[in-house]
Amino acid sequence: MVGSRKIGIAAVSVLVIAIAAGMFFWMKTRVPAGSLTDGLVTQSDTPPVVENGQAGAVALPAVADEHPLDPALRLAREALEKFQREVTDYTATMIKRERISGTLGGETRMEAKIRTRQVEADKLVRPMSVYLKVLDPWLARGREVIWVEDRNDGKLLAHEGGLKNLIHVSLAPTDRLAMMGNKYPITEIGLAKLMEKLIEKGERDKQVGPCEVTIRSGAEVAGRLCQLIEVKHPERDARFDFYIAQIYLDAERMIPLRYAAYLWPDSPDAAPPLEEEYTYVDVRLNVGLTDADFDPTNSAYQY
Question: Which among 3, 80, 115, 249 could bridge 89 via Cys, Cβ 3.0 to 4.6 Å?
Fold first, then answer.
């Protein structure tokens, strides 16, 4: 009897360890053939608004002797300032795919609720708050993650879905288990962070050297009209993060609905391999999220 009890405890321990080790294995699980973004994204074949810093068929302000990235950076800063000024929270379906340690993982589709960060007079009045629920792939379906920057000692709270929902974990966002299958920690998620990263990359790339930049109107993401900003580094250089980057900026709301980056192809005839992509669809701004949306005791959640 005692021996059977020890065996039972050992079996549960092994199961707990296995579940913990598999937690946040976002992208290693594969999806069926095809892409979750198939049919959602269309590129633009209209004449460029700006090409290599020069105004094109549709005039935008241009500055003499400026870097080709400067028009795109001005647009990104304007978008970020508008977002920070006007948006307190939003919901969306997020589709992401990332290359980690040289291996491109499968796609993950998630329901996302995000409340934006606000600081007044050096005081945090609205902490950044994130709720995620995995919708695809099916092996990870039902996984929920909550992170609020000033709660739970800055740790995220998560659990697996379905029959694997046996334990809850509390992890630092950069913990090894939390980062398994993730290129970035949960603290870097969201539209504002994406814009901040793009501006940071652009400013860094300006110091490295020239690049080719094109801005076009008429692209779409899930039926939303967008401006397509494409940045290309024709010459392979380890100081650049990508060969081609594409940013789809919602023409009306000035929010980035999609970012995709590609590496240099191994041969001139080869397609550039995908490095990372993030697509936001069904984005609803200022929906009035409350603390309950980021509370694991919420009865709508499976914690």
Answer: 115
